[in-house]
Description:
Layout lengths: L4 H14 L7 H8 L3 H23 L9 H5 L13 E4 L3 E4 L4 H7 L11 H10 L5 H13 L5 H8 L7 H12 L4 H7 L8 H27 L13 H9 L4 H13 L8 H11 L4 H12 L7 H16 L5 H13 L17 H13 L4 H19 L11 H10 L8 H22 L12 H17 L1
Helix pairs in contact: 6-21, 7-11, 8-9, 8-11, 9-11, 9-15, 10-11, 11-12, 11-21, 12-13, 13-18, 13-21, 14-15, 14-21, 15-21, 16-20, 17-19, 18-20
Amino acid sequence: MAMGGRARGVASKLRRISAGCEIAPHWWFRRLLTTDLRSRLAELIPGEQERLKKLKKEHGSVPLGQTTVDMAIGGMRGIKGMLWETSLLDPEEGIRFRGLSIPECQEKLPAAVSDGEPIPEGLFWLLVTGEVPSKEQAATLTKDWASRSDIPGHVYDVVNALPINAHPMTQLTAGVMALQTDSEFQKAYEKGIHKSKFWEPVYEDSMNLIARLPGLASYIYQRTYHGGKLIESNKSLDYGANFAHMLGFKEPKMYELMRLYLSIHSDHEGGNVSAHTVRLVGSALSDPYLSFAAGMNGLAGPLHGLANQEVLRWINEAVEAIGADASKEKLTKYVKDTLNSGKVVPGYGHAVLRKTDPRYTCQREFALKHLPDDPIFKMVSNLYEVVPDILLETGKVKNPWPNVDAHSGVLLQYFGLTEENYYTVLFGVSRALGVLAQLVWDRALGLPIERPKSMTMGWLENYCKKQTVTAKKK
Ligand code: NMX
Ligand code: MLT
């Protein structure tokens, strides 16, 4: 069997070390040997704290750009105002998780099957440490999460108190709030924990929450759509496959889809609504459950995570109205009718991206590999041919290209997960990986409470008048 990229890297490093060409730094061996994420994190934190201190001391007053009135009234677009370590978004190239693009993650991170998709455990290790984990390190996380995954009975009671037709995202946030009774951070804070140790219970809460989300989310699915049958978790499966299993799917390709899905939706730097909300709420030292639930309420908005549900509904309506094999002319009319009725075209556009989202591209590649002849996939491809030009014609849309949500529904539907109102819950389970990895670092780095300055219209008007007078005098 061919050696994977990481194994080749390790082998060549070992060769260079044993040939005396290179001295192995002690941390390099530790990095390979430590299979416990918390220990590895504890090793990394002091260095990162020093790095931040140095950055602040040496460059604290370097300006990062100018803020304009447009930015202040336009959703703070373009303001560089946050530190976020786990990922960085380039408008042209898309997301990089700790420096790795999606194809690089697919190549380097551990997979469950040969040439398969990365498992979320590997991605989480990468997000937390900045290091590509070994298979053993990722497997330790699988076990660790499985051991933390039991859900207290009252959580089901809280979810069950909601009517069956409550939106699955409402059920999810209620369930996460019910899990909060187990918060280690809250207990430790009440006991007077020293702030240098905040990250420890935040790590424990984050790991427990991530471990319990698939159980909670799959219960919501079973309860809402399949009569409430609880499928026991299969602890021999990895996180993504076990989640698919608890949702009631057995097809190995669905396991692969879930691994890919949970990996690519995890993080999209810090400014998006869900991530920024988790950061903001966490900055008040609200525990990870409170912070994550708040972020999920933001993800539930149709301009953010709920767009995946909107996309599939919109596509299914198109299939009904004009047929799955509709001509480009008919599709064009359908898209224009959507715009003319004062709605957005779901799954298209982005606040930061200016090219096709690589998360769309990798899902397209998955479809080309596993469902090339699916008529709905073909419609998604045909929409790609017509939507961007129509959006450009409006003269106002800054990014006419598809985002992650334009493609996810068609894949899920193909494998039998047809209930589109549930899709944002999947997004939420994945988003936990990124925002909670960062939340641990927020506390480890001692980031302060967030509090940007706001202004009234009157304040802005006066300020701008004064600026104009001063400019004229000069
Ligand atoms: N369909 C119709 N109009 C659009 C679209 C679209 N897909 N995208 C942007 N516009 C409009 C936007 O509503 C605004 O109009 P107005 O001036 O009348 O208010 C104008 O174009 C300029 O907006 P932009 O600066 O291009 O986009 P902005 O950064 O404000 O918003 C989104 C970004 C993502 C909210 C927007 O593109 C959108 O509403 N897309 C459709 C919903 C969607 O797919 N959301 C999912 C995003 C990804 N995610 O998972 O979170
Ligand atoms: C996300 O994944 O959070 C979305 O693409 C929205 C964003 O980045 O603004």
